[in-house]
Design goal:
Elements lengths: L1 H16 L14 H4 L17 H12 L3 H4 L11 H11 L22 H9 L8 H8 L5 H4 L6 H11 L4 H18 L12 H21 L4 H29 L16 H8 L10 H26 L3 H21 L1 H9 L8 H19 L1
Helix pairs in contact: 6-12, 7-12, 10-12, 10-14, 10-15, 10-17, 14-15, 14-17
């Protein structure tokens, strides 16, 4: 819940200041004229209450003769997994302004997924049924890209704000690099960052600590807790790591090997799942290729961290090892901390929310295989 609070209190006001928040499919009121595809002007308002039956019938006869191309300009823009986003963009490009309103009393309430797999599916819709990340990336590669479709129609800063969402799937490449490469290079003895004694390490250290501190401050200001912020950071890594499925499937779709589809999300949980959700326990409890990747990367970072600590302890020149690999070791330990719920689900938990044994076996085998290939 705190994750959505930070979105509501921070992201949407920022979009409002940059030209208007985007349409996210719920909690929204539209002007009828905007949905009818009309361009905004001061005289476009219609007093629908004063239209009598005769005028309505006349309007209906006119609508029957309306061409298909005109009908396609009315209502929601379909043909995309995130039809709400391109619908809102087309309205803004037609001159309509969106305004963000967040009253003290919540105007809209709804249900959200309570398990990790449901949450990832909602963002990814894995299995050629992707929703958010694939749909946004699909928009970026289409004529509805905000930089093209919104050129000279909406402010440049709003065009760039749309890109932050449209490039969620592509963001997986950077996330996968920072999750996988530092630990692999640490196993091989390759340093990726300046030495701790080098002044150039300060910019890297500043970015890491300043960004985390600012993120924590924002989360607490939005009414969250420190534990909630830690879980939020974990979900950030889990989701962006799993966005690889959306990115890869978009490439297949461009090549004609895949088709986009939509799946209805289940948001009803049993009592045990709801109880663990209220206890801030991440619900795994299912087999999925996404869990295979998450668990494998978690085990790989654990192996590299243990190997680095062993090297520091056994090496005669401890200070030299820490000087060369200090920041890299810190990053791997941070990833191990983020993946603590994964380790608990793999080895410690006994409830139905634990990782399936098949996922545990595959993650250990894949991690050992990567470890062996890296070392030899």
């Amino acid at each position: 819940m705190c994750l959505w609070l930070s979105t509501i209190k921070l992201e949407f006001p920022g979009l409002d200041a940059n030209g208007g928040p985007c349409y996210i499919g719920t909690g929204c009121f539209h002007r009828r004229e905007a949905l009818c595809g009309k361009k905004y002007d001061k005289d476009c308002k219609v007093d629908w209450k004063k239209l009598n039956n005769r005028k309505v019938k006349e309007s209906a006869s006119v609508l029957e003769e309306t061409s298909v191309s005109v009908w396609l300009q009315m209502g929601l823009k379909y043909g995309c997994l995130v039809e709400d986003s391109i619908t809102g963009l087309s309205m803004q490009c037609s001159g309509w302004k969106s305004i963000y309103l967040n009253p003290e009393r919540e105007g809209f309430l709804g249900l959200a997924p309570t398990t990790l797999l449901q949450t990832l599916i909602q963002h990814l819709q894995y299995g050629h049924k992707k929703r958010w990340s694939e749909g946004y990336f699909q928009i970026f590669l289409s004529r509805y890209c905000s930089l093209l479709y919104g050129h000279k129609k909406i402010p440049l800063k709003l065009q760039l704000a749309y890109c932050a969402y449209n490039l969620l799937a592509a963001n997986c490449l950077a996330t996968l690099y920072y999750v996988a490469m530092p630990c692999l290079c640490l196993l091989k003895g390759i340093s990726l960052f300046p030495k701790m004694s080098n002044p150039w390490v300060l910019p890297f250290a500043y970015v890491v600590f300043a960004h985390r501190a600012f993120s924590l401050g924002e989360f607490l200001w939005c009414g969250g807790t420190f534990q909630g912020w830690c879980n939020d950071q974990r979900m950030w890594v889990f989701k962006r790591t799993s966005y690889f499925f959306s990115f890869f499937d978009n490439i297949l779709m461009l090549l004609g090997y895949s088709q986009a589809a939509f799946v209805i999300m289940e948001k009803i949980a049993d009592d045990d799942v709801s109880k663990r959700y209220e206890q801030d326990l991440i619900e795994f409890g299912a087999t999925s290729p996404m869990f295979d990747i998450l668990a494998t990367l978690a085990m790989l970072n654990l192996f590299s961290s243990v190997g680095a600590i062993k090297k520091v302890i056994l090496d005669a020149d401890h200070s030299k090892v820490l000087d060369i690999f200090g920041l890299q070791i810190l990053l791997c330990l941070l990833l191990v901390t983020i993946n603590l719920p994964v380790y608990q689900a793999l080895f410690l938990r006994k409830d139905n929310g634990r990782m399936p044994s098949s996922v545990t076996s595959k993650s250990i085998i894949f991690a050992l295989l990567a470890y062996t290939l890296t070392m030899y």
